[in-house]
Amino acid sequence: MSDIKKPGMSRRGLLKAGAVGGLVAATPSIFIKDAWAQEFRNDPKNTGELKLGFNVPQSGPYADEGADELRAYMLAVKHLNGEGDGGMLNTFKPSMLSGNGVLGKKVTYATGDTQTKSDAARASAKRMIEKDGVLMVTGGSSSGVAVAVQSLCQEQGIIFMAGLTHSNDTTGKDKRRYGFRHFFNAYMSGAALAPVLNKEYGSDRRAYHLTADYTWGWTQEESIKNSTEALGWQTVNAVKTPVGAGDFSQYITPVLNSGADVLILNHYGKDMINSLSQAVQFGLRDKQVNGKNFEIVVPLFSRLMAQGAGDAIKGILGTTNWNWSLQDEGSKAFVQSFGAEYGAPPSMAAHTCYVQTLLYANACEMAGTFYPPEVIKQLEGFNFDGMGNGPTLYRAEDHQCFKDVLVVRGNENPSSQFDLLKVVDVTPRAQVEYDWTIFGGSLGPYEVKM
Amino acid sequence: MDAIFIQILNGLDKGAAYALIALGLTLVFGTLGIVNFAHGALFMLGAFCAVTFQKLVTISAKVRDEGVTAFVAYKEQPYLESWFGDTGRIIIDYSVPLSIMLAIPFMLLVGYVMERGLIKHFYKRPHAEQILVTFGLAIVIQEIIKAYFGANPIPQPAPDILAGSANVGSWVGLGDNLVYPWWRLIYLCFSGLIIFAVFAFLQFTTYGMVVRAGMRDRETVGLLGINIERRFTVVFAIAAVVAGVAGVMYTPILPPDYHLGMEFLVLSFVVVVVGGMGSLGGAVMAGFLLGIVQSFASMNEVKEIFPGIDQIILYLVAVVILLVLPRGLLGRAGVMDD
To answer: A residues 357-416 near B, CB within 8 Å?
Structure first.
């Protein structure tokens, strides 16, 4: 018979292992900081650089907005690396950013083209994650894209700092642990706009909605309907229009005889330009209905997009996330920096993208690591100021930023070529906050299996 | 009644655009036998003639924008305004109709070069290859326009005097509340004029008579010693001009972008097929018919009964017509029957 050693552990071995285990458990975490560092995707390790992925529409209908986002990202990278005048690095507080890169690493970037199509956006984000090795993905000009890329980033364990996305779903039913939105949403637009609509147009109005037939349009229509009906307005009709319809005349002409005295255009981008221009051409703004002036409302306004509508935007009410005319120190610093670099003021999309990059970089500094779960924990519940819009909170429960919302009107007498929107009201943050559970959804886990 | 009247106007207006594009498509198909998928791109090129003309008349000096204090910004002051005052302003204001002067020679040239440089090499090739090459050409044209003009729509306002709406209700005794944009009415009249001109050219001129004869029997016309190919090249160029000027005049209705042609192309092919391949009258009739049908399908009363009908109505009507009349409304035997 051969002498076979039985597997298992001796009593003495067990005691030794227990002692070592206890020692490790009792060791203060500062001594094992970065112990998780080898466990996450695209860890920059000793490469000396941190690569970010800027996924913006470089082609397709929102290419101009994408170009402005990219300009803002490049400016943010400059400022993070200590070049230029520092922009909002000088006003952002509390901040650990010093213009020395992030955690001592130089910030670099890769770019992708979302084409404002969910599939293309996912493909370009995947390429940046897998081929370029980016540690964070950011950008975009559409809620459909944001929801799709956010979901991919959750699967990949890569943080997604959303660009321009206004649907309630992004931080509602489709929210993800790895996704963060600085931009405001449709609910907040409704909450901010309603008091101004009440003041300007009264509580006895009949509204007709034309709505882009996709996630953003649906949630905006719902939010604006809820807000205006709470004022006492009636909703005469809500008609879905295909995205990219081009000629909206067949949707606008029924409004003429509907008995409505307000037209609400839940459109963005090219659809907004076309539907608003055509509504004005059809003489809606010159009409008197129910003894009142007919009014048009565009709940989500963008200065960049408004340029395309020309004079049609004059006098039209809407909301915007940010405007370059704001006079707080952060906005002034950003506008000056951006204007000096590019000869034009930043759009609201550029602003949100710039801020998102700085927020991510600062969260890494605060966490002392690039390990995503720790960075996420720093962003969750983070209170900050000095980035425009006043004191802001990144709510932990749904990763939605809460800040003041601007109600704007198309400027009747612009003082410059860029002075297209006039701020008529700054709605305080408290007025646009809501219970995060109303939109459902679940954030998902911090840890992601690779 | 008001709603029905306004939807008829809407349908005629929409149909006018379909009819003009379909007319050019049918001309090319009827003469050269080519299925030209680049025809939508010609409509878009015409629209960008208006954009180019506007850019030419608004070539500007850069002057400091005093309204911007946060940084050094410049705005543009058109030289025409500085040099000629009100006359310059009027030229800029009327840039859309004036740009037809640029569009006609430019589109003639484009049509000629396209036919001689590319299309003629595909006359005897299968329709599938013609479609592939012309579709590829459309994409190339589209991408060139995007690279040069960007992706955003570029507004082309109608002249100030025509920017408002006409009180069409009072014209037909339906009350003052019924209005319709002036420019859309002008577009409708303009389309009628172009359609009439094309038909008159083919019907009442010797040149047109030869072209019609060539459409019927190319070989016999050739045996008479007439260079029918050269005449067909001219017809191709005329089709390009029709698409181009239609595009120019459409710009105040829909700010042009690089994708404009594609938006109309598919619908225009439906129009051509419904009208009957090769039938000019059929193309025009189908254009207006489908425009009106599409407008009525978008009425809320209709959509309450058939939700989403506005999205599919054109194709539904096309299927029904082709089931009843397999050659389309005015299609002739022997055309695309194989």
So the answer is: 414-416
Inter-chain CB proximity A417 and B6 less than 8 Å: no
Write down the pTM of the prediction: 0.82
* Assigned domain for B254 exists: yes
Task: Write the ipTM.
Answer: 0.77
**Which chain A residue has its CA at the smallest distance from B143's CA?**
A59
Pick the CATH number of A187-320 from 3.40.50.2300, 2.60.40.1180, 3.40.50.1240, 3.40.50.720: 3.40.50.2300
Residues of A in Cβ contact (< 8 Å) with B178: 256
CATH architecture of A49-184+324-403: 3-Layer(aba) Sandwich (3.40)
Q: Rounded to the nearest 10 degrees, what angle do helices B182-204 and B206-216 cross at?
A: 80
**CA–CA separation, B336 vs B282, rounded Å?**
15
- B253/A270 touch (CB, cutoff 8 Å), yes or no: no
* pLDDT tens sequence across A365-409: 999 999 999 999 999 999 999 999 899 999 999 999 999 999 999
**Which residues span the domain enclosing B45?**
2-55+101-324
Those residues of chain A that have pLDDT short of 50 are 1-9, 14, 21-37
- Structure confidence at residue A10 (pLDDT): 55
Distance from CA of B26 to the nearest CA of A (A): 24
Nearest to A166 by CA among A216, A240, A96: A216
**B65: which chain A residues are within 8 Å (Cβ-Cβ)?**
416-418
If residue A299 lies in a helix (H) or strand (E), which one and from where to where?
strand A295-300
List chain B residues with pLDDT less than 50. Answer: 338
Q: What is the pLDDT of residue A18?
A: 52
Q: How far apart are CA A85 and CA A108, in angstroms?
A: 18
